[in-house]
Design a protein that fits this description.
0% strand, binds zinc ion, single chain, mainly alpha, 182 residues, 6 helices
């Protein structure tokens, strides 16, 4: 996995796509939950569940199915005032589904560990993309694991955080220019 901090940053970046008038803490919280929660499955290691098991790390919690269920739960809990099954309600479900699914996509771009069980619980085959440019983060809190995490984080700041910031800035500047014209 990329580091949890980077998953959270990506979640916040998704939320940042909303215009200022509609962006709210609920959108930020929901996006961060959807982008980070999948890695709660590392608890499987301490429960003795094998890595390759459907409930193991990068298994069910990284699947498209889990992202879909999570998107419903997040909208149901954080946007309870929205009319059920209204257009806006479905739009939020779609948005949080994409945010949740992006976790597995990002993990499938890493160069270590087992692949992602995108189609769990129906099929536990693990997948990587053919291109895996991201260094995999370590699991655990040993000195060596933390050192490696920091190295990976530095790499991610340069190769993920910076490009995302530039994209968001460009979108923001383009949005401001468009507003001035209209
Ligand atoms: Zn992950």
């Amino acid at each position: 996995m990329p580091t949890t901090i980077t998953h959270a940053v990506i979640g916040a970046a998704w939320a940042k796509l909303f215009p200022k008038q509609t962006a709210s803490w609920r959108i930020y919280l929901g996006s961060i939950i959807c982008s980070v929660l999948a890695d709660a499955d590392v608890i499987a290691f301490s429960l003795g569940i094998p890595y390759g098991h459907v409930l193991g790390h990068r298994g069910l919690s990284h699947s498209i199915f889990f992202a879909l269920i999570l998107s419903f739960v997040v909208v149901f809990c954080l946007f309870s005032k929205l009319k059920l099954f209204s257009g806006t309600w479905w739009a939020f479900v779609c948005f949080f589904f994409i945010v949740g699914a992006s976790h597995g996509i990002l993990d499938a771009l890493t160069n270590g560990g087992l692949g992602i069980a995108f189609f769990a619980p129906f099929d536990n085959t693990r997948y990587f993309f053919p291109w895996t440019p991201l260094p995999v983060s370590s699991i655990g809190l040993s000195v060596m694991a933390i050192r490696w995490k920091l190295r990976v984080l530095l790499y991610e700041i340069i190769h993920i955080w910076l490009p995302i910031s530039m994209i968001l800035m460009t979108v923001h500047i383009a949005g401001c220019a468009f507003k001035r014209k209209t």
